[in-house]
Amino acid sequence: MSSSHPTQASPGRWADWFARFRRRREAVPAPPDPAERERIAAQERAKIFRDLHDDIGVKLLALLHTVNDVRQADLVRSVIYDLRDIVSRSRRPPGTLLEVLAQIRDEMEQRLEALGVQLAWQQIATPDVPVTSFSALNLFRIMREAVTNAIRHGRAREIRVHIACENAMLMFAIANDGGGPLRASATGTGTLGMRERAVALGGTLQWTEEPAGGVKVALLVPLSSLESATAGGMG
Description:
The protein is α+β, with helices and mostly antiparallel strands. 54% of the residues lie in helices and 18% in strands. The protein folds into two domains: 35-91, no CATH class; 94-234, Histidine kinase-like ATPase, C-terminal domain (Heat Shock Protein 90).
């Protein structure tokens, strides 16, 4: 019984089998080099970001204009800000600390004005050091969640922000005059995310009760970390 298997074939068929095998291998395209893989991945990410903006972003904006409750509207607005961070802020070139703080203040003013909440902003001797895009993104997300907690749990009428630098450390504190319990403000999924982001920046977060009522959350982070922190160090 004849067989075409190469181990039982004549020398001529052996050569023919190896020639076909070699042609198949040569027909397989070589894998792209690392730079080409990164270019392709960047194109795919850009497409996903555009889809997020064009689809989900538009739907969220439509929802924002149909919500009657101001606190529900603020929740939608906060999600829109988070989406904007994902789509654009994480891809922006690095900026400076003063630029980031000015943008945070502008966002807070917009949110709180819509809620009828006063903002008292105090910024003392803040150096204009470079800040990585990763650091800026985490500062935004920490402060945004702190404001959300003050509104949701504290029913604040005023939010006070105090920013200062001492011994190469940035201190960013947000306090409210609401009556929400400390436990509600310092626990939950949102605050767990805040802690993780603070750790990613090489910093710490602390919640304390204000003497006159309300809760204060304070972020303490080395300025050097803001200049060097990247997503690779988040773990």
